[in-house]
Design goal:
This protein has about 140 residues and is α+β, with helices and mostly antiparallel strands. It has a single domain, classed as Bifunctional nuclease domain, CATH 3.10.690.10. Helix 1 runs parallel beside helix 3. It has a seven-stranded mixed beta sheet. The protein starts with a strand and ends in a 5-residue tail after the last helix.
């Protein structure tokens, strides 16, 4: 697994498709992920530390995880099939480790709330960077 950081959020309110860019923490490779507007706003709010008067979806999910005495260890973009990225949210509750299937945008939105590490599987990074899609 390769440690990544969020390097860009590109929000265009006139489009349904937004872009985030992940970059290697200790390297130069990066790649874009197309996400929805709501997820882009959630990520942007988390990065900027903006709170809302009432919990939104990602806030709610984080609160549920916390109330279950669990924590998010990391998120992992673990696969790429037919130009669609797949991710896992890795939780720990006591000594149990659980992997929850997730869209990358939701996993990253949760990760950004508490500076949770973001990883990408080596095979995924190699595939997107060899295809010429990296930025």
């Amino acid at each position: 697994m390769i440690h990544m950081v969020l390097s860009k959020i590109m929000i265009t309110e006139t489009s349904d498709h937004q872009i985030i860019v992940l970059k290697e923490k200790e390297g130069q490779r990066s790649f874009p992920i197309v996400i929805g507007l709501n997820e882009a706003w959630a990520i942007d709010r988390a990065v900027k530390g903006i709170t809302t008067p009432r919990p939104l979806t990602h806030d709610l999910i984080y609160s549920v995880i916390k109330e279950l005495n669990a924590g998010i260890l990391r998120v992992v973009i673990n696969d790429l099939k037919n130009n669609t990225f797949y991710a896992k949210i890795v939780l720990q509750q006591n000594s149990a480790i659980m992997e929850i299937d997730s869209r990358p945008s939701d996993a990253i939105a949760l990760a950004m709330q508490k500076n949770t590490p973001i990883f990408v599987a080596k095979k995924v990074l190699e595939e997107v960077c060899s295809s010429g899609d990296n930025l």
